[in-house]
Amino acid sequence: MWAHTLAVTGPNPIAEKNLGDALHALGRHEDALLHFQNAATMQSTDPARHIDLAEDLTECGRVPGAVAEYEEAIRLTAEPASQARSYGSLAILYGELGEYSKARESYREVVRIDPQLGDEMIRNLSRAFAANPSGGGYLSLGMLLEVAGRILDARIAYQQALKLDPTLVEARQSLDAIEPGNR
């Protein structure tokens, strides 16, 4: 239906977004990407279009592009909830890229803007990494716990990260930084 709408009406950001949503829902992320890009170009000042594009770029494994789109969405929106969600997504993506200082700062922004979202992220990440443990995952959880002020839990997360991946320098440095004698 939306493909037909585009054929009949020509450039139409709503049809582009809706066709992107339909393709995304079908798991056809690469096909959806073009439509989300078109919608973001046509409605370049709408943060929601940049978030749609960032989410699909993430699904396609195009992390640097997703980061740029989330950053643009944050720049464009004054809505705290949207900013906090975008910062949360950025934190995870920065962690995947190994840009841990940016990940930590993004988590800090989530907790500052929307402490309840920070708590929700802690619960979700805790469940996810308990089911599918990884050193990087526990490092991310530790950073979020630390900026949320849950230092004892952060210490446990950093220790778990190092147990799973002893080469994680950032986890060692983070753990050392929160030890009682170093604070």
The percentage helix is over 70%
| Strand residue percentage | under 5%
Unreliable residue runs? 1-7
Task: Give the averaged pLDDT, no decimals.
Answer: 91
Instruction: Please count the helical segments.
Output: 11
Task: Name the overall outline.
Answer: elongated
Strand/helix succession: HHHHHHHHHHH
Quaternary state, please?
A: single chain
N/C terminus separation: 60 Å
Number of strands: 0
Structural class: mainly alpha
List keywords for this structure.
0% strand, mainly alpha, elongated, single chain, 183 residues, 81% helix, disordered N terminus
Tell me about this structure.
With 183 residues, this protein is mostly helical. Helix content is 81%, strand content 0%. It is elongated, with a radius of gyration of 19 Å.
Briefly summarize what is shown:
The protein has 183 residues and is mainly α. The protein has eleven helices and no strands.
